[in-house]
Design brief:
This protein is mainly beta. The protein contains no helices and 11 strands. The strands form 2 sheets. Strands 2, 4, 5, 6, 9, 10 and 11 form a 7-stranded mixed sheet that branches. It has a 4-stranded antiparallel sheet with strand order 1-3-8-7, with no helix packed on it. A hairpin with a 6-residue loop joins strand 5 and strand 6 (about 60). The radius of gyration is 14 Å and the shape is globular.
């Protein structure tokens, strides 16, 4: 069982930055691929970024490429999402998710593939 707790959301003006953190419980954090997803009102949940257990493989959605960066610290059991040049379209609830994978370099971009989810953190970008 893995518990995930997100933090770092808030209200920011367009062009600003936020860093989301997701702290995971457990001693085998490096066995889990991690993902960040977001869901805006009336829209489906979408993948934002994902990272392998080792941190060596990453995925970034086209909508945020060049602005968002995912990283992880397997000593601190934490995954981060650095968000720069934020736009009003980035407004959503952001969720982190974990999926146990046997290959340390594997990542997953499908929400249905993830086993554990955090409670979400609201990000609001004003124009």
């Amino acid at each position: 069982q893995v518990q995930l707790v997100e933090s770092g959301g808030g209200l920011v003006q367009a062009g600003g930055s936020l860093r989301l953190s997701c702290a995971a419980s457990g001693r085998t954090f490096s066995y889990y691929a991690m993902g960040w997803f977001r869901q805006a009102p009336g829209q489906e949940r979408e993948v934002v970024s994902a990272i392998s257990g080792s941190g060596g493989s990453t995925y970034v959605a086209d909508a945020v490429k060049g602005r968002f960066t995912i990283s992880r610290d397997n000593v601190k059991n934490t995954v981060y999402l650095q968000m720069n040049s934020l736009k009003p379209d980035d407004t959503a609830v952001y969720y982190c998710a974990a999926r146990r994978l046997t290959a340390s370099h594997a990542i997953s971009t499908t929400s249905g593939a993830y086993d554990y989810w955090g409670q979400g953190t609201q990000v609001t970008v004003s124009s």
